[in-house]
């Protein structure tokens, strides 16, 4: 078989690449090894947000008392919770599969592909394929310490959680990154006994120490959270997992129904036969590539989405795929595509977001910056709706006056983060952001207070008046 363009992997990145490549040529093959439907719909963004939505509903009942609304403690029907998660998830998967089935059958191959050399792929159905250009869009998989595999079906990662028929009694969540925090808090709020384990004191995507400290205080108050703990290799004990760990010099042990490995994800490149190509690989075995062209060290090979190991996020995978597809289609001419401002959101409660250049990026770049802290505890709208827990750091450039980025744990951070990311991408000055309209009473007024402090700290504005009332109380 011969084709102009072969795309390995029909996830978000591969589908996006296919749609662009196809505009330029009819000689495209989209190769998918699994059931398809994308990680996002099947085992990622969508089912995790469905589980979190159930947890939010339970939490709203528990805190209704604050408003004088008396309720019984919520009774969680685990079977019904998981049924809705799976049914809605299946709907998202079905819609994605319908899209793919609308592609001409001659463009679709159901097989696992592996490089034989720079241009040839061997499929696991025995066929061989020669392609002028190849896009690697193979996604990522959970990275799980090998000895944990002995736990058998008591060891789960995200995929298995969304197959549960009911909620278990207890889960040990190892890793307090994005997946650990999202799923751990959701399960906890759904009545599961959850303990989160972390080697250090990390919280999701945060890097700013002051924001981490604030977030950690909140989560340690709410959940069993073993920070700075050293885990021994978990043992299977009947139908349970026995965990032993030390924390602050003390030894502990506890049994759980499951161990949820939330210990990071790694690009799916190990079974791709990359060693048979002339591609330059980094120390993790991932092809080196250029983020603006998506081109690898061999001109005709491109990489997109989680497979490139850079920013494992849905919108980045879609952009990667689009640019790789456009360039593979246009080959040998390639174009450089500007990337969007950084935007990452973690759907905990309160939500967490990192926008533009977070503190780690600014420090690493040695860029001059000023910062301002912002508490949401007395913020008007946040108090009105009883969601006044949150802290943010805003960063700005003292030379240009431009807004550079933010790290935040805040009520409705998913919306605040978009406003801030759009400001970063528009290269807005902090003073220009402050000229924008702010309604009253809204959570965005909190941002305005933070931006005023930032302007002051950049020596470009007045000392903000404490408890300023120019837009009503709690601005
Ligand atoms: C629990 C969880 C929650 C998430 N939540 C969010 C969120 O809220 N927001 C967000 O932005 N991101 C989220 N993400 C990340 C997001 O899901 C991923 O960044 C995105 O799905 C990656 O898309 P992709 O196309 O790179 O990979 P995938 O969608 O995984 O596609 C890769 C495809 O390649 C196929 N494949 C692999 N190897 C081969 C081969 N050799 N031959 C043929 N086919 C092959 C695989 O079967 C797969 O179908 C979440 C991830 C997880 C795990
Ligand atoms: N809302 C979202 O956008 C969203 C949601 C879920 C996942 N994702 C994507 O999926 C990626 C993977 O998520 P993740 O949470 O698995 O990875 P992560 O890198 O965010 O977190 C992994 C955590 O596991 C810890 N860890 C690693 N090995 C360990 C060990 N042996 N023992 C104890 N702790 C250990 C690490 O210190 C880290 O805190 C994220 O980077 C993110 O891009 C995004």
- Arithmetic mean pLDDT: 96
CATH topology of the largest domain: FAD/NAD(P)-binding domain
Shape: globular
Largest sheet: 7 strands, mixed
User: What is the annotated CATH architecture of the largest domain?
Assistant: 3-Layer(bba) Sandwich
CATH superfamily of the largest domain: FAD/NAD(P)-binding domain
Radius of gyration over all CA atoms, rounded: 24 Å
Percent helix: 25-40%
What multimeric state do the chains show? Answer: single chain
The hetero molecules present are: flavin-adenine dinucleotide, nicotinamide-adenine-dinucleotide
- What is the end-to-end distance? 65 Å
Task: Write down how many β-strands occur, each being a DSSP E stretch of 2 or more residues.
Answer: 23
Uncertain segments: none
Number of helices: 13
Report the portion of residues in β strands. 15-25%
How many domains? 3
Structural category is alpha/beta
What is the CATH domain class of the largest domain?
Alpha Beta
Provide the descriptors you would attach to this structure in a database record.
single chain, 475 residues, alpha/beta, FAD/NAD(P)-binding domain, Enolase-like, domain 1, 3 domains, seven-stranded mixed β-sheet, five-stranded parallel β-sheet, 13 helices, globular, binds flavin-adenine dinucleotide, binds nicotinamide-adenine-dinucleotide, Pyr_nucl-diS_OxRdtase_dimer, flavoprotein, Dihydrolipoyl dehydrogenase, Pyr_nuc-diS_OxRdtase
């Amino acid at each position: 078989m011969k084709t102009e363009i072969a795309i390995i992997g029909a996830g978000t990145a591969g589908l996006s690449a296919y749609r662009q490549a196809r505009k330029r040529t009819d000689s495209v093959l989209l190769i998918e090894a699994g059931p398809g439907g994308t990680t996002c719909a099947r085992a990622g963004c969508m089912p995790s947000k469905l589980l979190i939505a159930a947890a939010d509903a339970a939490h709203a009942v528990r805190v209704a008392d604050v408003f004088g609304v008396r309720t019984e403690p919520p009774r969680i029907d685990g079977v019904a919770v998981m049924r809705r998660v799976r049914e809605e998830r299946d709907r998202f998967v079905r819609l994605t599969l319908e899209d793919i089935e609308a592609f001409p059958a001659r463009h679709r191959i159901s097989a696992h592909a592996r490089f034989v050399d720079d241009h040839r792929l061997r499929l696991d159905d025995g066929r061989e394929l020669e392609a002028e250009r190849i896009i690697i869009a193979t996604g990522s998989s959970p990275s799980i310490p090998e000895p944990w595999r002995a736990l058998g079906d008591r060891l789960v990662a995200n995929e298995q959680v969304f197959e549960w028929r009911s909620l278990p009694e207890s889960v040990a969540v190892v890793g307090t990154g994005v997946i650990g925090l999202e799923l751990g808090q959701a399960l906890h709020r759904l009545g599961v006994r959850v303990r989160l384990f972390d080697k250090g004191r990390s919280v999701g995507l945060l890097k700013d120490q002051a924001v981490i400290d604030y977030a950690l205080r909140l989560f340690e108050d709410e959940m069993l959270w073993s920070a700075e703990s050293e885990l021994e290799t978990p043992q299977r004990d009947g139908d349970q997992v026995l965990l032993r760990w030390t924390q602050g010099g003390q030894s502990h042990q506890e049994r759980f129904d499951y161990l949820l490995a939330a210990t990071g994800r790694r690009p799916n490149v190990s079974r791709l036969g990359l060693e048979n190509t002339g591609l330059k690989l980094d120390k993790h075995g991932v092809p080196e590539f250029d983020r603006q062209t998506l081109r690898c060290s061999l001109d005709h090979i491109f990489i997109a989405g989680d497979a490139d190991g850079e920013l494992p996020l849905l919108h980045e995978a879609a952009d990667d795929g689009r640019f790789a597809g456009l360039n593979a289609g246009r080959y040998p001419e390639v174009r450089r595509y500007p990337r969007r401002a950084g935007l990452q959101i973690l759907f905990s409660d309160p939500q967490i977001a990192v926008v533009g250049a977070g503190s780690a990026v600014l420090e690493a770049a040695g860029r001059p910056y000023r910062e301002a802290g912002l508490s949401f505890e007395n913020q008007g709208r946040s108090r009105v709706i009883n969601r006044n827990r949150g802290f943010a750091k805003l960063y700005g450039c003292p030379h240009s006056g431009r807004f550079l980025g933010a790290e935040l744990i805040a009520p409705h951070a998913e919306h605040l983060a978009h406003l801030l990311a759009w400001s970063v991408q528009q290269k807005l000055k902090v003073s220009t952001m402050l000229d924008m309209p702010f309604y009253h009473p809204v959570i965005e007024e909190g941002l305005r207070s933070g931006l005023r402090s930032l302007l002051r700290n950049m020596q470009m504005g007045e000392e903000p008046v404490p408890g300023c009332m120019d837009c009503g109380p709690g601005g």
